Amino acid sequence: MAKIESFGCKHYRRKCLIITDCCKRTYPCRLCHNHNEDHKMIRHRTKYMLCLCCGMIQGASQYCVMCKVKMANYFCKICKFWTDSLGVFHCKQCKVCRVGNKKNFFHCTGCNACLPRELLNNHNHVENTLKSTCPICAEFMFESVNDVVLLNCGHSIHFACFKIYKESSFQCPVCLKSAGDTKVLNERIDCILSNNVGLNAKRQNYMCQVSCFDCQSVSKTIYTFLYNKCAKCGSYNTRINELYKTE
Question: Can you give the residue ranges of the CTCHY-type domain (predicted)?
Answer without folding.
Answer: 71-133
